[in-house]
TrEMBL record:
GO molecular function: hydrolase activity; nucleotide binding; RNA nuclease activity
Protein name per Swiss-Prot or TrEMBL: DUF86 domain-containing protein
One protein family per Pfam: HepT-like
Organism: Gordonibacter urolithinfaciens
PANTHER family: RNASE MJ1380-RELATED (PTHR34139:SF1), UPF0331 PROTEIN MJ0127 (PTHR34139)
Keywords (A to Z) from UniProt: Hydrolase, Nuclease, Nucleotide-binding, Phosphoprotein, Toxin-antitoxin system
The UniProt record lists the keyword Nuclease: yes
Any one GO CC term of the record: toxin-antitoxin complex
Database matches in InterPro entries: HepT-like, HepT_RNase_toxin
Amino acid sequence: MNGKNEQVVEKMLSEIAIASSLMEGVDLDAFLDDEMRKRAVCMTVINIGELVKNLDDDFRAEYSNVPWKAIAGFRDVAAHKYQTLRMEDVYATVSDDFPALQTMLGEIAD
């Protein structure tokens, strides 16, 4: 893995860790009632999706098991259609999908 891709993956892992810490011990109702937490978590989603766009095409093809396109697409919705973004979807993504993504990226980084 070249230096740039390695740095991007490490930064993605860092953003996942931030989102996980923001969500620690927080259920859906508490998340929906906390505007600052929602905005902070959405920013991590945006950051992760933006980072995906900085990976080389060959790198993304080599690790095609990672849903790069879906990650970048969710970023676009969070960034450009925030008013229609369902916070329940954000919660589910961070709670359900981020752990698997963290595992995949961790395996790449090792």
